[in-house]
Design goal:
By secondary structure, the chain is mainly alpha-helical. The chain has one helix and no strands.
């Protein structure tokens, strides 16, 4: 039970810190999405 509580609190802490630190970058950087696909041909899209 102690390990489960430790992992849960660590996950919550990392989530909050990650969201807080990335909030300042939102206005400085453009949104970019990179999609990497293996074995995808031109005819497979659309």
């Amino acid at each position: 039970m102690c390990h489960r509580l430790w992992k849960l609190s660590l996950a919550i802490l990392l989530t909050v810190v990650g969201a807080w630190s990335s909030a300042g970058w939102a206005t400085d950087r453009p949104n970019v999405v990179v999609i990497l696909a293996d074995d995808l041909g031109y005819g497979d899209l659309g």
